[in-house]
Design brief:
Length: 371
């Protein structure tokens, strides 16, 4: 196993991010300026330890479509560094593709763009980025400083301020999201208790009682309540889904797959159902006659990959689905696909403000083992 198995959630529920908000930094530069970019990245080492991740085209995984990867990184970056030089201005891709995208995201408040003057260029103040704060301070290019390390220190100080501001913005957005989730939960609980008091034997009351029992690990009783809910409302997709999870909790793999499949038939856009059916496919099962544990087969892993793929199609930022699909690829000895999915999982978790340290370590370890 390349990482810890993700257990099936007992009920449908929202996730919230970690307190510290990671910041993604994107380098837009000309390849002729790679030595200066490398030197700047060295000076960013302290900021990396404080939660930023720096990305440039040299980190593209072999076999990936480079234009799509660069565009994806550009669209998800928190801070975009424009490494300005004659090479940058002369580059059609830098000047006509990356620069306009960066400016659009900056003006929309989606990212912070920081122009960094590496070497002198004629009439740079006529460029679109000239209206932004340029580093080093004073507009003297890095290569014209007597001590280039001092120039990069000045640049990094400016980047550090932008990082702190961006972290505060992301934390404020996360707090706002949590407040909305809390209010929604409180309203939902109030309406449930009101409805339950009026119609104690409704499908909704049995369904919610099943949730409470499932959360307490009383899977058999939860199954009974979900069954009562389904009798009263035969097209109750969430009741089939949750009963499937309860069957999985009681080690009845076939019943779990059957119920989750019925939930998908009733709601074909149910991304979580595809995801958790994939998880069930990947799990071992208990033979009820012999009481022996039956391991997952290669066919089951293939079925799981199909389910995780559909979940991702319905929800392109489904980080856990990328993680689980990576594990299925690992079990089938498809290391290239595993690494690609692990990278997508890391990217998606970062986008949502989740901690990626352990997952990144797993990804790095497998990359190092690649021939």
């Amino acid at each position: 196993m390349f990482g810890e198995r993700i257990v099936v959630e007992s009920q449908r529920k929202a996730r919230v991010g970690m307190e510290q908000q990671p910041i993604e930094v994107f380098f837009s530069y000309s390849r002729e300026d790679k030595p200066l970019r490398d030197k700047l990245e060295i000076h960013l080492s302290n900021l990396k330890r404080q939660g930023i991740s720096a990305w440039h085209d040299r980190l593209i995984v072999a076999g990936s479509e480079w234009k799509r990867e660069i565009d994806h990184r550009m669209q998800t970056a928190d801070i975009i560094l424009l490494l300005i030089s004659p090479n940058f201005v002369a580059s059609k891709y830098c000047n006509e593709v990356e620069l306009p995208q960066a400016m659009r995201r900056h003006e929309a408040g989606e990212a912070c763009v920081i122009p960094i003057l590496l070497s002198p260029i004629a009439r740079w103040k006529t460029q679109p980025f000239a209206k932004l704060q340029v580093y080093p301070n004073g507009g003297t290019p890095v290569t014209q400083w007597k001590n280039q390390d001092a120039a990069f220190v000045d640049v990094v100080e400016g980047i550090a301020v932008a990082v702190e501001t961006r972290q505060e913005q992301k934390q404020a957005l996360l707090s706002k999201k949590r407040s909305k989730q809390k209010l929604k939960k409180q309203v939902g609980e109030f309406l449930f208790h009101l409805f339950d008091s009026l119609v104690p034997n409704s499908a909704t009351s049995f369904f919610n009682r099943g949730i409470d029992k499932g959360n307490n690990g009383d899977y058999d009783d939860a199954i009974d309540d979900y069954t009562q809910a389904i009798k009263r409302k035969p097209n109750f997709a969430d009741a089939f889904y949750n009963r499937g999870l309860a069957h999985h909790g009681s080690n009845d793999k076939q019943a779990a797959i059957a119920d989750i499949t019925q939930a998908i038939k009733l709601n074909p856009d149910f991304a979580e159902a595809f995801y958790n059916r994939g998880v069930v496919h990947c799990s071992s099962s208990l033979d009820r006659d012999s009481r022996r544990v039956v391991d997952c087969s290669s066919d089951s892993y293939q079925a799981a990959i199909a389910d995780f793929t559909q979940a991702i199609k319905l929800n392109p930022d489904f980080a856990k689905a990328f993680e689980q699909r990576a594990e299925a690829h690992f079990q089938l000895n498809d290391k290239k696909s595993m690494i690609a999915d692990l990278q997508k999982a890391v990217d998606s978790h970062r986008k949502h403000g989740n901690d990626t340290q352990q997952l990144q370590k797993t990804l790095n370890r497998h990359k190092e083992r690649q021939p």
